[in-house]
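Today's session is about reading a structure prediction critically. Students often jump straight to the picture, but the first step is always the sequence itself: look for stretches that repeat, for charged clusters, for runs of hydrophobic residues. Only then move on to the predicted structure, which in these notes is written as discrete structure tokens rather than atom positions. Here is the chain we will use throughout the hour.
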Amino acid sequence: MEFLMQRIWHSSVVREDEHYLIAKTSYLDSLMERMAAMRVNSADLVIERAWLERLGRPGDMAESREYVEELKGVEAYLGSSSGLRTGLQGINNEAERSLFNDTVIAIVQAETFLFRERGYSDAAAYSRAWEEFYAGSCRYYSNLDRVKTTWGAYIGNSGREINLFDRGKSQQLYRDDDDNYIINGSLIDSFHQVNTRLELNKDMVVIAAHGHLLRVPDAVCRESALQMQNLKGRFIKGIAKKELAGLLGAGQGCVHLIDLVYDSVKTLELYLHQEKILD
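Below is the predicted structure for this chain, in token form.
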């Protein structure tokens, strides 16, 4: 077994003061280290300031910061993808742009502890609103008639005031003795823990695919791991995320599982691209 590459992300959302949040996503791989950050109003989740930090590697450890003025005034929330895309047009690197999307996802998750500022009377009202708003979007919200634990009950009665959310993601790429690729993906955050394993041949056709949901709001979520079998025999180089989501169940799947598998595909594509450049 030969180890080829690793990638690591860390997202966090903390209160800066009574009115603002600071949300960040840091990223490292074999060649690049970056951090995307936002200062966001905690009541309306509108971005007040956003910036990207580019950090050097051994041999040239210099750092630089680029403020992304076009993101100012954009809501950091679901449904804001158009505004985010427009605001990020000046950043050409796809990996750098994706860090801002990861940061927005973290803010959405942190909203669990901002329900009063977001206009909800209590955690139960917030939970009910999400059941209506997010209906049909994932295994949990597509099977509310079978769910035994509401989101509010899963979180519990005690909320967070300062450190609202943390998420870590990782990808490890290996090549086995038969020249097949093995990609292990992991996600652990304040609410979830999900792991994936893909085995692909040298032509990027899936030989085996496994998913494990170790910590989830309800047992119904774990059923989405069965969708991983739909990847077997598929050529997945360059696959669009929407197509991948369809293979993994879409609204009957798990968004975190889909994200991890998509990251795995991108990890192998990134490695092969770097190998081609070095050759």
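Discussion point for the tutorial: The first strand starts at residue 2 and ends at 15.
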